Fold this sequence. Notes:
The protein is α/β, with parallel strands linked by helices. It contains 18 helices and 15 strands. A hairpin with a 2-residue loop joins strand 9 (about 390-405) and strand 10 (about 405-415).
Amino acid sequence: MLAELHVRNLALIDEAEVAFGPGLNILTGETGAGKSILIGSINLALGHKMQKEMLRKGTGACLVELVFQIENPTILQRLQDMDVDTEEGQLIITRKITDGRSICRLNGEVTTAARIRKISSLLLDIHGQHEHQKLLYPDNQLEILDEYGQDILALPLERVEDSYQAWRAVCEELKEYEIDEKERERELSFLKYEISEIEDAALVPGEEEELEKKYRLMSNSKKIAESLGEVHRLTGYEDGAGDMTGRAVRELSQVAGYDEALSGFAASIGDIDNLLNDFNREISDYLSEFTFSEEKFFETEKRLDLINGLKAKYGKTTADVLEYQKQQKNKLEKMENFDRQKQELLKKKEELQKNLEQDCRALSDERRKAAADLSAGIRDGLKELNFLSVEFEIRFSRTASYSRKGYDAVEFLISTNPGEPVKPLASVVSGGELSRIMLAIKTLLADKDDTETLIFDEIDTGISGRTAQKVSEKMARIGRNHQVICITHLAQIAAMADHHFEIAKSVENASTISRIRELNSEESVEELARILGGAEITRAVRDNAREMKLLAEEKKKAL
């Protein structure tokens, strides 16, 4: 369950810490006090986007921290499978947002928002203020059915997904064959031209690098010859270094016998003279063999231009050009065997479509079983939510084509009046009825997927009176097996709270701030009286609130 929520510098909240408990947690307060901001902060921590204006004015960063205490062994195992460690079942999610930067942490370690969203789907389910409107769209209805029937639908859905991808790949390949004869001839001619152009070039891997070396050498041949000639003169024996070292050798040889140290100097200068003599001779040999051929230079330049031209058309490197040639040869082979290849693909498509049809039919059969159970569950749930007479069914039809979810299209149909035929939700139900239908569905889904925490942001939209009482009893019943966090404006629902929190707005130091605190029993009665009483809270209103709280406690004991 969600054990703690810590929020700092978000909209009207400067800092708030809430310790939620098990069962039904109710949040109440005046309109605009910041109730939805608190729920929005949970969404924010779970990786959702934040609008810049949500950052509290005058602050540099906001922070939201969620502390989960997980007891369900199935969820703990799933988290372990996702390489998420928990310390005695505790999991901490933190998100800090500054101008243009967001950092998510999982148990103190930096992680991605995408990973947080994936993990959070195991921990809680948030029903926003307008989420029930999703029920009006067939695609969402199919998603609800698949989520409800996940135990029996997971494998058929996987098979359909695999069959669809294989069938779709062949369909895409067949699009290449949707050309007329003239276009085909043009394509053949163009492919042959490109392949021939690359083949005529007779490219050799690594050739370009060698040619560039030769080109640089020949381009600078004049400068090389001039520099080497000068080096040969400076190290030679006609007023060059060789002449000077020779004279030094002769001078030292005349006096070397007078001192051993002089003998060492003589030996060293002799070595230098020999090295210089060898160096000068090698330079002379290089110069004698060094020639510049205009013809070879032109051929090298022309070859490089050819290679660079091919690279500009077909790839960044020689290897890319050769790979492109290989690809074009494959295309040419297909084009030259156009009819045969097309017929083979059509046959393959037919076989794959037959497999896909079978997998879709098997999925549809299982979906219809799940739909029957879901319909019955929704009917029972709606009767508990004060639908005195209700018929609910899920109608199947077939889509025009296949998709990765099969060929089923579903539509939720309902009748809330005796003798009236079932009709699509959009043409029958009011906002309050739609909220109750979504509540019934959320209850069924929660029981299916082991979700520990359910969050409802104003599930009471459009309801009152006896219906509100039924909804409150349903919420309390859900709270027996799940943690429920609910924002409400109705006293009937608030009275059922196991933990009642008040969110209030005040002005402190010329700044508007929202505060949240858990109410004790007497304070809860006072808050119920505020909800019931409006502008003035009389003794009679307080007595009514107290009686409502007592009746709610008795009702919870009987659930």
